[in-house]
Amino acid sequence: MSLELNRRQFGLAAVAAALATRLSGDSAAETGAPYAWRSVKVGGGGFIPGIVFSTAERGLAYARSDMGGAYRWDASAQTWWPLQDDTPISSYFGVESIAPDPNNPDVVHAAVGMGSRGEAAMLRSDDRGETWRTTTVPFKMGGNEDGRGLGERLAVDPHAPDILYFASRHDGLRRSVDGGATWSGVKSFPHKGLGVPEKDTHGGLSFVAFDAGSARVGGATTRLYVGVADPGGPRLYRSDDAGENWTAMDGPDERFSAAQGAVDPRGVLFVTYSLGIGPNGVSDGAVWRYEGEEAQDVTPPRPMGGFMGLGVDRQNTGTVMVASMNRWQPGDTVWRSTDDGRSWTSLRESAARDVSSVPFLYWGNPEPEFGWWIAALAIDPFDPGHVAYATGATIYATDDVTMVDRGEGTQWYPWVEGIEQTAVITLTSLPEGPFPLLTGFGDISGFSHEDLTVSPSLQFTTPVFANTNQIEFAGGAPNVVVRSGTPHEGVGSEGHDGSTLAFSEDYGRSWHPLGRPEPDAVPVPADHSRMDLYRDAAVIVSADGENIMALTPTPRLTRDRGRSWAEVRGLPTKARPVADRVNGQAFYALDFDTGDWFVSQDHGATFRQETSRGLPNLADERPVWREEPFPLHAVPGREGDLWMVTRQGLYRSRDAGKRWDRVGGELSVERLSFGATAEGAAYPSLFCIGRRGDLRGIFRSDDEAGSWLRINDDRHEYARRYRTIAADPRVFGRVYLATDGRGVLYGEPT
């Protein structure tokens, strides 16, 4: 089968139209400024711990992310729809488990909660996740904790859909008999849970699986299985009387955790086991098959690592697939058996991947990786050739996995249309050039975006960073761009020399390592949280693009693109300058500890202290986290015009920091950016992440912070996991929003 014919997620024009219709929406509430919000397309990008196909309707599937909410696959639109963009509760974006009703395609349940310190709830939808009924629960979850690939923890009785079970992390087995509205503990279940830990987490109970073919009592399915991931004691229990009594079952060494379980139409149960709950730290594993009282070890070859992902073929009994976990050498794989696990075929060696729709998956290498962290693995119950597995960066799907049964290689494509599940650290929008947006991500480096609707082909490489923490451009020469970040795991290989500073002279199209200053005898301040200030330093470029400063413990300046570095004189160790956006000679810096103000008028070579009045005491507000946007801003196109974002209010200086005035009214500003000027106005529009009372949202001001309009609405909350923003200086009203889990969004007036 040709790759050109099997990419069922393509048909981009139809997808774009559907997305525009669904994701746009007037933000009229409280604003008077209607806005449409859409995703900046990257395509996947993050960890998807679970994929579940509906058994009630062909073409219906759900995916759960660890920090970006749940998604539903819409076969008619050929896209994944985000299902929780309207939630204002941050913790609910960590989805612990998802369970579509086995018989009613409109009903789906989800267990949500980011971690043991966050809020937790059970969600029920009667319209495929378009709207949710929320039941808060006292037992904690860990949608973004270790063990998030176990499962599925939540299960609906196939014959009595008002009965649900939930395998909790800390509080034993929970049950609802009213469709998820209320929950109670199953007192007869032997493992009661270990309670919420002070730190780290528990695997707890890992999965619930019903045998739909077993007898019924009062309508309820009698046989069900529950896996245990906590150490010590049995790993697997079976009930033959609808959960009233439980029998421990045989399995591997009790050091192992039961990871995932699935029952095929014959009533045969398969279980993957792991030594460690993942997604990292799994060092061994096993696969077992259970039929009646018989337990059998059917583990594939395992030179290292363990097993987690599991799928059973519901049309061809005896066919089962499992995924390795943390098999770093020669790399993870998916194993397939058509004879109940007596023999296995590894798919990795003969698999081909076409990632042309999501080119960042090349990572600058000749071929994309097969994948890692493969916890999600699912076989379509209506089309056994259609199989999907998720990695730490994408979902791969194939339309005919049975090719491997015929001795051929399987062919895979990214199945991520509509999924934007990434943590975004920084954004920059340039005033000119081919790229309206430059983005810095966690884990996947960053991108120069030519088209917001297409997955970018220009990933930041030479060098590739793991995280891109900062992007700055020269105010008067925006073709000069610098970035800083943290090292990629591939340091030492081609393109990965360990540099964490880079520059571009063509608006971000191509990049060059900037090198780094050599460490000196000055010790790193104890209160810095940076990993290594010589590999993790902030970077600044002068307005004329001639000089670049690295904020190492002793700040250094280069005038020759990193070939040589000179010590910056007169700047306190903990001060971090910003460059004036017009005057290439001028830099400004605040010593947060003392409140002293420093200015350079010689390209940053030397700083002198100057008188400054009006700022409050900011000693407790000095940023130290490498991913935190800096609060001091220089306004594009206006020499000496500065703004300071503080927890005590928003401050502005019109005279290069000599005098500061509090502005901004009642709005508490957290992040600030400057966009295009409104018609008839003389000053750039301001955009911010801010808080008005209990409402955290996105706001715009067209009158220099005299008044603010909220420009997002209750349909576009994104769990309020906002990290930073960048206004577009070329398109009035457009703003880019970086989230922690839902990628990059952009809003425009409608």
From TrEMBL:
Keywords: Carbohydrate metabolism, Glycosidase, Hydrolase, Polysaccharide degradation, Signal. It comes from Parvularcula dongshanensis. The keyword Signal applies. InterPro entries: WD40/YVTN_repeat-like_dom_sf (IPR015943), Xyloglucanase_GH74 (IPR052025). This is Photosystem II stability/assembly factor-like uncharacterized protein. CDD domains: Sialidase_non-viral. It comes from the Bacteria. The keyword Ribonucleoprotein does not apply. Belongs to the glycosyl hydrolase 74 family.
